[in-house]
Amino acid sequence: MTTILLGAGASVPFFNPRLTTTSLTNAVKDRTNWENILEKYNSVLCDKEDMREAPSIDEIMELILSIDKLYPSYHFEQIAEIVDKYCSIKIDIDPKETVLSALIHIINTQSNCQIPTSDERWRDVPFLFREIIADQILHYQSDCKVEDYDNLQQMQEKFLDSICKVDEDVTIVSLNYDECIIKSARHTNFNFCNKFDQDDGFIQDVKSILNEKKIILFPHGHLTLHPRNNYTEYYHCAETADEHRWSFLFDSINKTITHHPAVFAYNFNTFITTGQCKDDSLNNEPFAAYYQRMAKDIMSSDKIIIIGYSFSDEHFNRLLKIFLHSNPNNIALIVDYYTDNVTMTDEYKDSECIISKIQKVFTPEWSVFVDSDSNKFPLNKEEIQRLNNIGYGEIFQNVIFYKKGYVSFLETYNQIWNILYPSKNKSICMRIKEHFQSIYTN
After folding, report:
1. Residue 191 in contact with residue 214, Cβ under 8 Å?
2. What angle is formed at CA 263 by the lines to CA 97 and CA 318, rounded to 5 degrees?
3. Are 6 and 172 in contact (CB under 8 A)?
4. What's the gap between Cα 342 and its chain centre?
5. Secondary structure (DSSP) of 310-365
6. Residue 194, Cβ neighbours under 10 Å: how many?
7. Cα distance between residue 332 and residue 394, in whole Å
8. By C-alpha distance, which of 149, 130, 141, 140 is closest to 23?
């Protein structure tokens, strides 16, 4: 079985300018974006034909600018976490409801400095924060596609198809909110885990999530999802899903869900998951089923292909930690864009280096040889030289690193298919050795 994990780097080549953490961070700090989203929010009618009251633009920007001033290096997910907790405190008037509100209540009873609470106007601000992210991504999908977007889609489709031809059980796990993977996955007959309901349209189907052979999962949510009171709708078009999230925002019967109750604080991760405490969203459907299926498939897989993932989400890292240790024949292929030469003697000094993160997650032995003159060399020196020459190689036992980025990988992935999908029954070590012997000979 093969599991493919797609991080933000898997979407980068599809847009110009690039859709990055920086671009999303700038979007959620932009006053004009907040003005536009507030105007849209205030134009949605409630059932009683009155408007839902929200904080003023000045109040919201005071919060955003305060975060930016005190923590200027914070990216959009860190800002989201502060906004979420701030709003949870504001709307939680019962100190018994969450641990956070109980903590604030204790502080207020023991301190001269009172933390103000009870302001229902802030209830939907985290939803608006996420809709600014959604608007930014919809803008990119509409106006910022690279010229060869369709060609990249076809290359990605061929990549998926090549795996499906040699492995009947394939799971795609996408952590991205955009639609870059959707067209390719649909054309290669991956199941999107939804079923048609006569009254409610396409809805996420837990049974399908748990049982289909070829599926695509969105454990961080997606713009095509519309969470409602009793189920989550799925739309083939992200723009349509966005329209429905807004039109049912104040529906009295089956409205758009903007938050969930939780133990520590309210959870505002509904259609997309952001912030720093993403685990809470995994307690709600369809995310609980996504995560259960992902955990099962990682344990069942003998191959994991990880593309453009920063190894920054602990709720995923904990699943990957045991992958290599569960079976000596398991193999991980990591695809990233890494411009420096790989040394395997210095990367461990930088905890933010992708190779250092890979080692921390998969926990293989980091083998360094020190000679009599105190010079350091990787134990597999020839292998690392080949990696820097041809762009890929085994950095740890059963861990292959492809350093030339996703576009280059889509053009050349078949070069290493004999390692992942051999025609003969050989050990991983033998397959890797024979592969690079042939490369070296040629």
Report:
1. yes
2. 170
3. yes
4. 26
5. -S--HHHHHHHTTHHHH-TT-EEEEE-B--SPP-SSSGGG-TTSHHHHHHHHH---
6. 21
7. 10
8. 140
pLDDT at 229: 84
Q: What tokens does 209 get?
A: 């999530």
Query: Can you read off the two tokens belonging to residue 256?
Result: 């758009």
Look at residues 365, 359, 363 and name the one whose alpha carbon lies nearest to residue 347.
359
- The residue whose two tokens read 């078009």 is 237
Closest CA to 224 of 203, 207, 210, 249: 203
Contact between 283 and 296 under an 8 Å Cβ cutoff? The reply is: no
Locate 221 and state its tokens.
């949510």
Rounded distance, CA 223 to CA 245, Å? 10
Q: Say how many residues make up the chain.
A: 442
pLDDT value at position 280? 81
Distance CA 295, CA 290 (A): 9
Q: DSSP assignment, residue 195?
A: E
> What tokens does 321 get?
């930690």
Residue 72 phi, psi dihedral angles, 5° rounding: -65, -20
What's the CA angle centered on 76, arms 316 and 9, to 5 degrees?
55
What pLDDT is recorded for position 212? Answer: 85
pLDDT of 56-77, one tens digit each?
A: 999 999 999 999 999 999 999 9
> Which residue numbers in the chain have pLDDT < 70?
47-51, 93-96, 111, 113-114, 116, 196-201, 423-434, 436-442
Tokens, residue 122: 């802030």
pTM of the model: 0.90
Spatial CA neighbour of 103 closest among 277, 112, 78, 92: 92
Structure token pair of residue 375: 């010079």
**Nearest to residue 222, comparing CAs of 293, 271, 288, 276?**
271
Whole-number Å distance between alpha carbons of 412 and 397: 22
What pLDDT does residue 366 have?
A: 84
The string over 317-355, giving b where at least 16 C-beta atoms fall within 10 Å of a residue's C-beta and e elsewhere, is eebbeebbeeeeebbbbbbbbbeeebebbebeeeeeebb
Exposed / middle / buried, residue 366 (Cβ in 10 Å: 0-12, 13-18, 19+): middle
Dist. CA 352–CA 311, nearest whole Å: 10
Helix (H, G, I), strand (E, B) or coil at 307: strand
CA–CA dist 129, 34 (Å, integer) = 8
Q: How far apart are CA 272 and CA 319, in angstroms?
A: 21
